[in-house]
Amino acid sequence: MSFKPSQHQVAGHDGCLIAKGLFAKPSNDRESSFYSQLIEFDNKKAKSFTDQDDQSGYVGDYLSNWVPSYFGDLTENQLDEPLDLDFDQMNVASKFIPPKGLVSTDKKYILLSNLYEDFVSPSILDIKLGSVLTDDLATPEKVERLHKVSQSTTSGSLGFRICGMKLFQKDEKLPDLSKFKNDAIKIDETVQSDDGYLKFNKIFGRSLTPGTVPDALRLFISNSVDEKFQYHYLEQFYKRLQLLYNCLLDYEVRIISGSLLFIIENNPTILGRVEDPEEFDPLISDKFDINENDEEEDDDDDDDDNENPHKKTIKKLSSLNMIDFAHATFVPGQGPDDNVLQGVENLIKIFEDILEVQ
């Protein structure tokens, strides 16, 4: 198993790598510690439900349902070597038991599940949460700089900001971007057409206002997708955001500069084979409800998935995940993270408003 540069990264720092089912990103000890503590916390939470004969709680009740699976840490030199762990083992490991032998004292990369793996032609949206964008370790210069960014963007007014967006194009016709034009930027310079995708950079997101953010969300959902799937995606994300909000109320954490990653399938061949979208689009990936006796799917055609979507097994149509915990900590006794909750709450309201007129 060898790693190569990720082709679907839309925001954040460069240098992320992928292998089959895996995503390796440059990281720090704080992010590794957060994932490790989350695994321990949610395992105890699951056990408490089991002890009470109360199954495993409510849908989306665990923060682990909303984050990538964590498999430990690798050094840079380990990434150049074949990884002595097959993907079937990784699937088992996703039940919050990091595989042995991966942890190194010289941490450079954090090893996570690849959230893009189940999609053929994904459109991707990265939304940074919070109006406060720096943690207690930031320098005064960084605090001042990012405070100005927050005050001049929707980070300050809405508690979230679109950081990057990548839209699949099934034809060469460009969407109408006239709603996003303003005197501060040239909108054409914030969007790049490349290899069948439209890529919107961070300047596009910083130029948005509370009035144009809903238009950007509509564009993400509607580009290259017919009305049946548009409504389905909007409804699924609306439900997921509500579940996530309720989940976060139970966690005493501070997640600075964390993001929500929205992904939708846009491949016309895949979508053309779907009669009922909900059949292939569960609200969450329930990591505490994995049946170990289920037969493994045949993955022999995975290498040809992108080349021949007709042979692609339909695995997922959309997903919502929380990512980026390099500045995240558990804070027992201090209550939930209002900085993050504000942004999620405002997103819920915007999706609700869009659905009402859809």
TrEMBL record:
Source taxon at top rank: Eukaryota
Annotated protein name in UniProt: Inositol polyphosphate multikinase
